[in-house]
Amino acid sequence: MKRAVSLTIVAVLAITGVIAVLIYSFAPVPQFRSPRVVTINRGDSFRTVGDKLQRAGVVRSALVLIGWAEFTGQARAVKPGDYEFGGGETMTAVLRHLVRGDYLVSIITIPEGLTIWQIGERLQRAGLACPDEFEYQARRGPLIAALGLRPLGAEGYLFPATYKFSPHADAQQIVAGMLEKFYSLLTPAVEQRMFALGLNVRQVVTMASIVEKEAYVAGERPLVASVFYNRLRLGMPLQSDPTAQYNPEGEDEPALVAVHTRSAYNTYGFVGLPPGPIANPGESSIMAALYPAHTDYLYFVARGDGTHIFSRTLKEHEQAIAQLKKSGAHSPANIRAPLETRVK
């Protein structure tokens, strides 16, 4: 009888202790004097996640957190990222942050048509990366080597979009995020279309980058692409001002000077595409390069409002220029450089 009573008392005390531990573990931790950041990496086990949170003082017990997360099925829904905690939260609130993905992010928009150097400058302004380090990772970094993008680097492959990066992301991680977005576009249908055109990825992106720099109106991009494809087919130089202005070192020259400067990219001096992209095109320009309009245009001239007049012959082209000069539309003040005006 005494043994039974003793066992009952022990059981009650054990249950009481467990309840006390659970109540203590689920209770809010104290407020922190300064926020604490916990990094959850992709591939971390939830046991590792629990240990990190306990060491940072964000939760009281990693063991209880792991048990609760497994019991509720939330352990497999945690999202990687850098999480900032100010304290004063319950264990369930902390777990809710991890499942919702309330991690620290820096949001940055990369517009279409920027070069590697211009993207680096934008990242620097956002406090995300040093331009020199970004340029190195985008042109000569280990990821570029692994993807076979040397010697020209990732120019043209850094997809323009709005990105959410960790404030602690390094230049290589940023390049990887942008490349991942680009390669997601290379669906089997796109690869089949490139094969039909007889072009590889770099050639398509190079054409798309020229279209991006030439066409300011999305609806004209397939027409602009058709002009350049027609010129390639006939063995005519592309004579695109933006190709002449492109400089991998980031320096820029006025079009009137650049077109007379010899370079590997200046399509006034040779027939064919330049060796690589001259900017990072958006999806609209890539689609225009893949699906150009069916035309016999060989020339275009800027109206000055972002649109162009397209011509089939040099005579028509000269008449279009004369018409624009007469109307006052064809003047340096009305041209948004870099914009092709002298395709011949």
Summarize the amount of helix as a percent range: 40-55%
Task: Give the C-alpha Rg.
Answer: 29 Å
| Largest sheet: spatial strand order | 1-2
* Span between termini: 108 Å
Percent strand = 5-15%
Globally, the shape reads elongated
Structural class: mainly alpha
Total domain count: 3
**Main beta sheet: strand number and arrangement?**
2 strands, antiparallel
The count of DSSP E runs of length 2 or more, i.e. the number of strands, is 6
Layout: helices, strands, pairs:
Layout: H1 2-26, E1 31-40, H2 46-55, H3 62-72, E2 81-87, H4 91-100, E3 106-109, H5 116-125, H6 131-139, H7 142-146, E4 162-165, H8 171-183, H9 188-197, H10 201-214, H11 221-234, H12 241-245, H13 255-258, H14 283-290, E5 299-302, E6 308-311, H15 314-327
Antiparallel strand pairs: 1-2, 3-4, 5-6
Helix pairs in contact: 2-3, 5-6, 6-8, 10-11, 10-14, 11-14
Walk me through the structure.
The protein is mostly helical and about 350 residues long. It has three domains: about 25-100, 2-Layer Sandwich (Dna Ligase, domain 1), CATH 3.30.1490.480; about 105-185, no CATH class; about 190-335, no CATH class. The chain is about 45% helix and about 10% strand. The strands form three sheets. The chain has a two-stranded antiparallel sheet. A two-stranded antiparallel sheet has the order 3-4. Helix 2 (about 45-55) runs antiparallel to helix 3 (about 60-70).
